[in-house]
Amino acid sequence: MDSGALIILRTEIEAQMTLIHALYQRLDERVADLHPEHQVLMESAAYQLHNLYSAIENLLQLMAAHFENHISDTARWHTALLQRMSVEIPGVRPAVVSSESYDLLNGLRGFRHFFRHAYGAEIEYAQLQLNLDKAQTLRPLFDADIARFIDALQDRASGA
User: Fold this and answer.
1) pTM for this structure?
2) HepT-like domain: which residues (predicted)?
3) Which CATH number fits domain 3-158: 1.20.140, 1.20.120, 3.40.50, 1.20.1530?
């Protein structure tokens, strides 16, 4: 990757990470007083979890577009994108997410799918709390994954 393309990619990643951090802040605000009897607050927290995963997925899409961006199984592209970003493509790019981040993200992807498609279902507190815990565990791991990815790209660009 030439230096100009690397600067563009890094700038786009940083902009999306700023959005992801803002969504984490919103999520923190929603869960500060979360309890099982407050359905509206639980729905708000679930919506922020949905938004958080969507922002992370958008970041992964952006990164894939700079490299390979060919996922032929359109019915399972959400899963395929996440799987692809968890592996190194030799000579193209390093892995973006660690295996631990992949597992957490895959769980959050499942929650997002439920949230989008369970129109009449009420949010269950235990399930929501489980996914909130996954999101909080993911937070430092994903930041480290992205920093490691950018460092690896810079090393490749500089010939290190």
Assistant:
1) 0.91
2) 45-152
3) 1.20.120
